[in-house]
Specification:
Arc Repressor Mutant, subunit A, 68% helix, elongated
């Protein structure tokens, strides 16, 4: 992680001095993780691609303003989240696409929340049911709550990193995360048999 941070700092320094290859390398290094985060936010491959494309345009235009006060990835999460929220604001007038017709593939998503080691058929079926229910519940959260849940539980950002990414005080991040969890728990209340800890 420390080496990755140093590599980013070196590439950023070169990019800020006008080295286009360094900026391309920085973008290539982070584009997969950026897309995964955007896809979890949007649940739509085309929209996720739009979010990432817009985010990297903003990175390109603002790289000279990056001061290194946080990790590049933290700055990138802020840009991705803002792009996602901006795109959603523009699409408010569009008809909503249901989860059933959106055609997204949940395979591999939320894998870090569920440890899987050679379960039998019953356990695997239960795992898939839990994952599907969790995906559906997260998708129903307001966009901002969805972002904060994904940052903490999937991307494993610390409170400090989230505060920097969202440009909020740590206390506000904690309270918003708590409210998002309450909303998620409420959304899962009909799934008590699957989630024994949900009350």
């Amino acid at each position: 992680m420390a080496d990755g941070y140093k590599d980013d700092a070196m590439l950023i320094g070169r990019a800020q001095r006008g080295d286009g290859d360094a900026l391309d390398s920085l973008i290539r290094k982070h584009e997969t993780r950026a897309y995964q985060y955007a896809y979890r936010l949007t649940r739509n491959a085309e929209e996720a691609s739009d979010v990432v494309a817009e985010a990297f345009v903003r990175v390109y235009n603002a790289i000279h303003n990056f001061k290194g006060q946080s990790a590049f990835t933290t700055w990138l999460y802020r840009i991705l989240t803002n792009c996602f929220l901006d795109i959603r604001k523009k699409e408010r007038s569009r008809p909503f696409t249901s989860l059933e017709s959106s055609g997204y593939n949940v395979e591999g998503e939320l894998e870090r929340q569920v440890e899987f080691r050679g379960r039998g058929p019953f356990e695997e079926t239960e795992r898939q049911a839990k994952e599907s229910a969790m995906q559906s519940a997260v998708s129903k959260l307001p966009e901002y709550q969805r972002a904060i849940i994904l940052m903490y539980h999937i991307e494993m950002l610390s409170y400090e990193e989230m505060a920097m990414a969202l440009d909020l005080p740590i206390g506000t991040v904690k309270s918003r995360l708590n409210r998002a969890r309450i909303s998620l728990r409420e959304s899962l209340k009909d799934q008590r048999e699957l989630f024994s800890l949900v009350s």
